[in-house]
Write a structure and sequence with these properties.
Blueprint lengths: L2 H4 L13 H11 L3 E5 L5 E6 L17 H7 L1 H12 L8 E2 L4 E2 L4 H11 L3 E6 L2 E7 H14 L7 H14 L8 E6 L2 E8 L2 H12 L6 E9 L6 E2 L2 H13 L3
Parallel strand pairs: 4-5, 8-9
Antiparallel strand pairs: 1-2, 2-3, 5-6, 7-8, 9-10
């Protein structure tokens, strides 16, 4: 999937000369946390977000430091902070030259940009014009739509077992040679040994994602490599306690 497949096409935006008050009211009205800033020629010049309004003189939240630290920060940095906390127009608080994507940008690259740049939304351009915006919420919508499209399969137990083995063999984290799989009526039981606690949970997730699987039960034992300590699966321990409690005295 590409950015154009999931982006929001109706883009709410502001201009560089928009007042901070009007910008804040627009965000509250449309329940959005960030806006692209578009000039009179329709060209993207920045992005303004809730984060740009955190340090404001109106709310008495502008940055305050000891004078000796102000001296070390330098006058240019202090002047920039003053503009950001006292500015009356969007152009004075926005982030210029924002990260952008095109409609053909793959979603994995979009996610990579969001993670590395620590941003929540990316304007989508066609040439120099904004044609959409993709946010983390749009990615969640795409995920929800994809999950709904996946319907349970009537794969037989033998095929399910082979698919679970194949998925574990593909994963570098999985001690696949130490894990055995049995399947009955779509229920997968995992047996064997893992060498780290997260491997147990990851193996369960791997099995759950195989088509046709109805349930997964783990009997995997965690062996700590350095000490040799053996810890049974918590679900197995709970089942043993329940069975012991139900036995007649």
């Amino acid at each position: 999937m590409n950015a154009g497949d999931v982006m929001t096409r109706h883009v709410v935006s502001v201009g560089p000369e928009t007042s901070i008050l009007d910008m804040a009211q627009l965000m509250l009205k449309d329940r959005i946390s960030g806006l692209p800033v578009i000039d009179g020629d329709g060209v993207l010049v920045g992005v303004v977000t809730e984060g740009d309004c955190l340090r404001r003189t109106e709310t008495n939240t502008e940055k305050s430091r000891p004078r000796w630290l102000d001296f070390l920060m330098g006058r240019d940095r202090l002047a920039s902070e003053y503009i950001h906390s006292h500015g009356r127009k969007v152009s004075e608080v926005m982030t210029p030259d924002p990260v952008t994507a095109t409609e053909d940008t793959p979603l994995d690259k979009v996610v990579h940009l969001m993670e590395t740049r620590r941003i929540k939304r990316i304007p989508v351009l066609r040439g120099r014009q904004v044609v959409g915006i993709i946010s983390r919420a749009d990615l969640l919508h795409a995920l929800a739509s994809t999950v709904r499209e996946i319907s349970p399969s009537e794969t037989d137990d033998t095929s399910i077992r082979n698919l679970v083995f194949a998925e574990l063999a593909r994963q570098s984290w999985a001690p696949s040679k130490l894990i055995n799989v049995t399947v009955r009526s779509g229920t997968v039981d995992l047996w064997g040994v893992v060498l780290a606690p997260n491997q147990r949970e990851a193996a369960i997730v791997a099995a759950e994602n195989v088509p046709g699987v109805k349930a997964v039960r783990s009997h995997l034992v965690w062996v700590e490599p350095m000490s040799g300590t053996v810890l049974e699966d918590p679900s197995d321990q709970a089942a043993e306690k329940k069975a012991a409690a139900s036995e007649p005295t």
